């Protein structure tokens, strides 16, 4: 099972692809003041927005080989399906992963445009989790302990990708503006 909010995915990629054209228009327009610091600021804000769009495009929930992967904007999570439980949270759902706690999968959040698919995906995931718990109980699979393999334990990690390099110009431009404004040397 793979689930991704198609509308959010398409809009995120559309926003990411549009950013170079938007800042190119701003830089080449007649009203642009044209200083180096202004140019750096416009480009860095465009890179920041593009980076955010690409982070949002990567939201998904994947079930494969007995493991559940949840990719949120900053963190990704992995846990064995038979250890994950659905938990009601703030009018929506959360997934309780042992050793991590309750997490909200952003890809399965309530959506105006993709609501039916999201509900179907949540129902399918709930059925899949119940099926794996039933199979684990029937086969008497032991609960994961400290000495188990990595595939049997829950894990959380920070999502890093090549698109994160787009976030670097923003703090550089911010530092440059602060230096210019307050005269730090």
Structure description:
The structure is a single chain. The protein is α+β, with helices and mostly antiparallel strands and 185 residues long. It has four helices and eight strands; from the N terminus they run βααββββββαβα. The strands form two sheets. It has a five-stranded antiparallel beta sheet, with helices on one face. Strands 5-6-7 form a three-stranded antiparallel beta sheet, with no helix packed on it. β2 (60-64) and β3 form a beta hairpin. The longest helix has 24 residues, at 115-138. The chain is elongated, with a radius of gyration of 22 Å. Residues 143-148 have low confidence and may be disordered.
Core attributes:
alpha+beta; 5-stranded antiparallel sheet; 4 helices
The gist of it:
This protein has helices at residues 6-28, 36-57, 115-138, 169-182; strands at 2-3, 60-64, 67-71, 75-80, 85-89, 92-97, 101-103, 155-158.
